[in-house]
Design a protein that fits this description.
Layout: H1 2-12, H2 20-23, H3 36-48, H4 58-73, H5 88-103, H6 109-118, H7 142-163, H8 165-186, E1 191-193, H9 197-210, H10 215-232, E2 238-240, H11 241-248
Antiparallel strand pairs: 1-2
Helix pairs in contact: 3-6, 4-5, 4-10, 6-10, 7-8, 9-10
């Protein structure tokens, strides 16, 4: 554990590769590598018209997601470099691929399409204007979407209490322990909480599985996690104030 923690911190430290040039654009910009979206569209159509019994293994899906997001839509100079200039994010994604290959069945056609759609999570602001009201919290049109999401979460919570009470209780205990640890030790030392969307997506995967959610929902959560790691890095939950400010620039 100590070796793993030291390696993590070393690769999270500042390096010559930690700059916005390594990301190729600032947060919110849209500048994919030429040909990336066309290749992605061809792949999506190919999956859509494939036989229903198609199976996409995680050992293939996650490396492909890294190439598509990190090298393609984020337009980094090197396949091996993450946002911080080192291989940390690629290693984390490779370990995640091995874990999913061991624990989950391969994706079916619907799951593969949901997984691919989630790889564009950071670019939803580029959707046509008519599609934005249900996505933007600043518009009244988002209210129906939020109500549907809240209803779905409530239904899932009820199902989880019945199907997996131990798992749900474990999540509650884990959050409580992290909250106490942060309040007692980390916050006085200058750390702040920053929940990344890849962390939230990964945390949702066991809950979705326990709630017997559709395979497409599980695949979308994993795709969202892969997109977060490949584009924004596998950053930790707790950050120092100076590092968090740098990441928000």
């Amino acid at each position: 554990m100590l070796v793993a923690h030291s390696w993590w911190r070393a690769h999270a430290a500042e390096s010559p590769g930690h700059d916005w040039d390594n990301l190729a654009q600032r947060r919110g910009a849209w500048a994919p590598r030429r040909g990336t979206l066309e290749l992605g569209a061809v792949a999506a159509v190919g999956v859509a018209v494939s036989p229903p019994h198609l199976r996409v293994p995680w050992l293939l899906a996650l490396p492909a997601a890294w190439l598509y997001v990190s090298y393609g839509t984020s337009c980094r100079r090197s396949v091996w470099r993450g946002r911080h200039g080192g291989p940390r994010d690629l290693v984390v994604l490779a370990l995640l691929a091995l874990l999913l290959h061991w624990r989950l069945p391969s994706m079916q056609r619907g799951g593969a399409l949901a997984f691919f759609a989630a790889l564009h999570a950071s670019h939803m602001h580029r959707l046509p204007r008519w599609a934005q009201p249900t996505l933007s919290a600043k518009r009244r049109g988002c209210v129906p979407t939020l109500l549907v999401l809240l209803a779905a979460c409530a239904a899932s919570a009820v199902r989880l209490v019945r199907a997996a009470p131990v798992l749900l209780a474990g999540y509650v205990v884990l959050v409580a322990v992290l909250a106490v640890w942060y309040r007692v030790a980390l916050h006085p030392a200058g750390y702040h909480v920053h929940v990344h969307h890849y962390q939230a997506a990964l945390a949702a995967v066991p809950l979705l599985r326990a709630a017997a959610a559709p395979d497409a929902a599980v695949a979308a959560a994993i795709g969202l996690a892969a997109e977060g790691i490949a584009r924004w890095s596998a950053a930790p939950l707790f950050h120092r104030a100076d590092a968090l400010e740098l990441a928000r620039r």
